[in-house]
Amino acid sequence: MEGHLLDAGTMNKALDLIVENGGSFKVLNFNLGIERQSTSAADVRVSAPSHEVMEEIFSQLIDLGAITPETEVCDIITETCTQAGVAPDDFYVTTIYPTEVRVNCEWVRVENQRMDGAIVVGVNSAKCKLLRDLEVGDRVVTGVEGIRTVRKTEQREKRGSEEFSFMGAGVSSERRVELVVEQIAWELRQIRDQGGKVVVTAGPVVIHTGGAQHLSSLISQGYIQGLLGGNAIAVHDIEQALMGTSLGVDMQKGVPVRGGHRHHLKVINTVRRYGSIAQAVEAGIITKGVMYECVKNNVPFCLAGSIRDDGPLPDAQMDLIKAQAQYAQLLEGTDMILMLSTMLHSIGVGNMTPAGVKMVCVDINPAVVTKLSDRGSVESVGVVTDVGLFLSLLIQQLEKLTSPYQIA
Amino acid sequence: MEGHLLDAGTMNKALDLIVENGGSFKVLNFNLGIERQSTSAADVRVSAPSHEVMEEIFSQLIDLGAITPETEVCDIITETCTQAGVAPDDFYVTTIYPTEVRVNCEWVRVENQRMDGAIVVGVNSAKCKLLRDLEVGDRVVTGVEGIRTVRKTEQREKRGSEEFSFMGAGVSSERRVELVVEQIAWELRQIRDQGGKVVVTAGPVVIHTGGAQHLSSLISQGYIQGLLGGNAIAVHDIEQALMGTSLGVDMQKGVPVRGGHRHHLKVINTVRRYGSIAQAVEAGIITKGVMYECVKNNVPFCLAGSIRDDGPLPDAQMDLIKAQAQYAQLLEGTDMILMLSTMLHSIGVGNMTPAGVKMVCVDINPAVVTKLSDRGSVESVGVVTDVGLFLSLLIQQLEKLTSPYQIA
Amino acid sequence: MEGHLLDAGTMNKALDLIVENGGSFKVLNFNLGIERQSTSAADVRVSAPSHEVMEEIFSQLIDLGAITPETEVCDIITETCTQAGVAPDDFYVTTIYPTEVRVNCEWVRVENQRMDGAIVVGVNSAKCKLLRDLEVGDRVVTGVEGIRTVRKTEQREKRGSEEFSFMGAGVSSERRVELVVEQIAWELRQIRDQGGKVVVTAGPVVIHTGGAQHLSSLISQGYIQGLLGGNAIAVHDIEQALMGTSLGVDMQKGVPVRGGHRHHLKVINTVRRYGSIAQAVEAGIITKGVMYECVKNNVPFCLAGSIRDDGPLPDAQMDLIKAQAQYAQLLEGTDMILMLSTMLHSIGVGNMTPAGVKMVCVDINPAVVTKLSDRGSVESVGVVTDVGLFLSLLIQQLEKLTSPYQIA
Amino acid sequence: MEGHLLDAGTMNKALDLIVENGGSFKVLNFNLGIERQSTSAADVRVSAPSHEVMEEIFSQLIDLGAITPETEVCDIITETCTQAGVAPDDFYVTTIYPTEVRVNCEWVRVENQRMDGAIVVGVNSAKCKLLRDLEVGDRVVTGVEGIRTVRKTEQREKRGSEEFSFMGAGVSSERRVELVVEQIAWELRQIRDQGGKVVVTAGPVVIHTGGAQHLSSLISQGYIQGLLGGNAIAVHDIEQALMGTSLGVDMQKGVPVRGGHRHHLKVINTVRRYGSIAQAVEAGIITKGVMYECVKNNVPFCLAGSIRDDGPLPDAQMDLIKAQAQYAQLLEGTDMILMLSTMLHSIGVGNMTPAGVKMVCVDINPAVVTKLSDRGSVESVGVVTDVGLFLSLLIQQLEKLTSPYQIA
Fold first, then answer.
1. How far apart are CA B43 and CA B45, in angstroms?
2. This prediction's pTM
3. Considering only alpha carbons, which residue of chain C is nearest residue D348?
4. Is C256–A174 a contact, with Cβ atoms under 8 angstroms apart?
5. Disulfide check for D94: which of D60, D102, D117, D327 has CB 3.0–4.6 Å away?
6. In terms of CA atoms, which chain B residue is nearest residue A263?
7. D371-402 confidence digits (pLDDT tens)
8. The complex's ipTM?
9. How open is the CA angle C61-C66-C69, to the nearest 5 degrees?
């Protein structure tokens, strides 16, 4: 093992898992870096009472970034898929961390990294595949030999440098949201100026809490490159655009309109008549709002269906196999994801996203924020607050920032 | 208007909505029942500045159970559907309340009553249809003439009688759960003994909190006639049956098992190999748990897909149009629904369920319970508590009850 | 009974309570106002099987604003207090509603109205007293004869008029906070311009979430006439003023300072050395923050002690009998109370406050907001959001308002 | 530094804090234990740019259990208190960990260990004192020389042994409460059989949720040696004993009793008449419930006053300086504390309690549980659930246990 072994307790975790799985260890050698910037290295001999135990231990050590001596092997072990959509019993389950496998005596980076997949090996390549996408004949990686994951260990040095660094882990409703928003605004600006990619997952609460105009504004100003959600956010956004209400509540006065619970169905019916949201925009029926800005600014979106959907809108993708594929495609190459008050879609997105992508989770419910931001990675930050106010403040902070290019 | 007009403030709501919509009224006659059991009757003359306002007022008065003088008309107004899946602009949006329409000078009960649908009229019949199910040529009810909803007004008299009565509305984590459970147990026993139907919607938290054995027990004892959920509850239930963990947590010791986060994917792969949950049960692979009991006791289930699903299991219905149809079919004729820690599926179920079905919503999050039990009807009760303990207690209460048939 | 009997279901509640207490009724006469603005009147004959039941029914009817025929009596019944701090068994327990009692054949308004007190009658006067303040010889009102409460029934007419009207009841985290804040800002400006009185109850979360500068600003601009809280808000406010941290968290960077958990104790020690917060301000030690502005602007404050207090500060009132007295005094004549993230102190304040005072309850926890704003009165509004953002937004809204006097 | 340095990342924390405070380090020597049971030892040279920085670093290293080379000094540095209730500026602030100081060249254990105190040194002794208890002439420890804290490092070895071990840290509403309750029941039995001491802090929600009979049962069976709470739990417990309601809600039927909001005040008045709870018990007025069992079983209790108290009961201690002293006295020698749905009193108790005391925090609100159980110590466990059900289940589990003495 090499790297910042004391950071995040890696060394300790490694020794713990060996013992807990029934193995034992001897630390042969341990070089602690004598100064802060140094990395450490350790040689550890692992003993186990059986091959199964040893394999279980190795599979977990790989997750921690350890390199097993088997890496001198020239090729991982694979088994051929004999039933479409079903992996061999002993298949290696992928994590969110970048993974490399030995193919022809070389380390090959696994493409389409995501968690809970299998690795399929080609001639000189390897990629993650979902179980259901496995085809007969696919060579699926099994066992643990010849696999390693890459953990970013440089984080400590860079802290405090000019690079963006999110506030430490931990979710609390008792801290200063304004500071977090400032940092996010700064980061959004950076990503936009560098041609990066930001994707938003948003639930209908964004509209109910008055966030529609602010999210629309983010889109029209070029901060957002993709929108993921469900039927409901689009319905209530268009309801507000057409009738001034969201779920029947007047957004100017904040009070329910009598009969307003029927508004959303009238809206759905109208869009169905035009065939799609884009066609309703083109026909001049929808003239503002989040979906309008997406259409006008060519920001792609995907509305995944759910069991609770009314209607649905023609744009809602009710076949979830297709919806997951579209989500995954839209997320490719993303630098940052804003998760705005939708646990369902955000968990879906989290499953598809590899380590290294920054995630900002905003919700009024601390339990949701904890669940979403608990990936064991430094790149995610949770904010417990009202999403409408959050977006309002974010727009203000963005206005305060001067573009670096304007300075020059 | 006739009925218990002061109960639930019906009279007041009616006068309010007239004024708020821009109309005015004169109370021509108001007979308050002079004793408790009497019903009241009121004649109210409504004026409005335009036909549109008048129609809006009428559509809302109908929701309250008022009978408009237009009921002398022999037929409701209908418009023919000219585009599949799209209703006429002015279509009448249905509610959860039983509805009747005038056809050939007679009141005809609308079938398949559910909220947010349209009414399609046949020769001597009428039924609710979802927008997407409308076909070209369907005669869709528009406007408000010749429509009435039936509100149950007998509730006051029956209170305190031997019939089951749920605790009053209101959701609080500061009240005695044991009492509510006692009542629910009594009711479950009644429904079973009378050959009624109880459907459960359940999320994976039921398994995580140790409820699997208790829910299994409810099923094997004949208390449950249908199970609605998603991929996750089935996955973790089978994970517990096969590996003793739920989401990687050992259910006997309560601690995470190292490497346990991979268990659920191994389980999915195994079931995929056998083709379905039922086939895995028949093959002797799955030998206990919620899904096992469903298969063994011929309790039908539907697992609706969602964007967050891993795998999924072969049984997960990823086409949500079909999933909604299967849910609706499974819910037909239900007397009581237990909603156990799944907001998503429970909202879906609520949308499909007409008034009169008893609903019990259990969740640790008060906001979820409030949202689910807020239907303005007396038949729903919310319980803020740990769902595992709830089920444990429910089983105990059921054991305490002696069957009325055993007494005789 | 007279008034808007259908509003808020008063008539229905009255009939219900009669039956539930074991009595029965006949409606002798019921005049429903024929138009919206009219009031209604009803004569109801109540029968009860015993004097006790009748008295219980009357005491509850009084709470609803009914006038019992006994009002022709010239004097309420009183019993003399024979043990200091102890009321006669049958004493009348007061509510938050303005109350009048018959003394010498006249209706006399009860002074110091608050809930959960007893009424002590003088020669031509009456006032609320806490149990513990009762003295031997006090004439305490017992029974229910000759008592009436005054319910404001004019609310319906005034809605929509230029008078301030809060958004309807109900607490939800899914609505637009910006709208509520706009209304509160407008109201605060009105009260200040008319020389009214606003009192704030605030917990330490106000400081942790970055609200110190905004609350300071409200005070220095004359919007606040009193501050109620505990030891903690003052400690952390001064900690931020002296050391830039709140509970050890750097308020500029949002990260915990190592060793910062000791800051608050150092701060307490420092203020103890100077003898009081005011003396530390005068000595130039404290130069900004909420407490500083209170001292500088002569805004009185009371810090009530609690079992969890560290230190405490010399200003913390650890004798709670005195603290309650100071709170009550500070609240006299208040028009509006802002309750900012402190359930403990806000419940205390709610107990002391009569109906008619506007209450705004802000907390991130919906359960707290529900509990505080549930007084059955239209004057309270609950806001589920981050209190730091709430105050930030409130200051912005106030800046947008132009004083009516500046226009002229 | 010596001990299990990799456990809990102690080594890493030490190096981090040095750098973050502006110092630098060289690891002179690091002996990692080569097998699991071995301890490690490290020599680290610390450099700092100033005396202040060095002192700050040392004070934090002491908290981590490091021994500074200054331990060869024969005496800590002290400064004499010159103003009652005020410490010298540079006083050492205590933590929850057992602390030793050098007095006359010997390590002396500090008595009355608690956090947020100062250390006062006698001839051959030392003890914790609250700031307010400091007297003129007290020798108060300042600086950091000659101080060390003792961290328990043996925890790893003992895991899995027959000794009780709580489930790992982390608070979640998605785990199996039944398992935790089993463990707590087992521990309660052990403590009782060994003559240990268990103290309960309880809020009124215990009564509202039906826990009164279960908590009474715990007391009468000898499981509880002290009760800490406020006015409210005693009021509602006695209200239930006398009138069958809790805050006006009928505890048998679960519905509010009309007029029931006045019950608690009648109860307070009654107890005030008798002079104290004990006298009301002796007079035969109170015949069951939590307070009754405390009196009958000689279990001492302290009811700390708060600003929200009605009445209060004669037993409520409204002078909080005295209440804190009584709490602290009652907590002496406690083995385990059950914190039942009262954040206020539980935080107070937590502040007074040294490391090593087991703490069980039960609340329906996850945020409260997180806050209370977040002491960085393995001895506390949080349970998110309904407290009434928790107590019901605890009683059941205790009944299932057979006393070890009965076996023999």
1. 7
2. 0.83
3. C308
4. no
5. D117
6. B93
7. 887 665 557 888 888 899 999 999 999 998 86
8. 0.85
9. 100
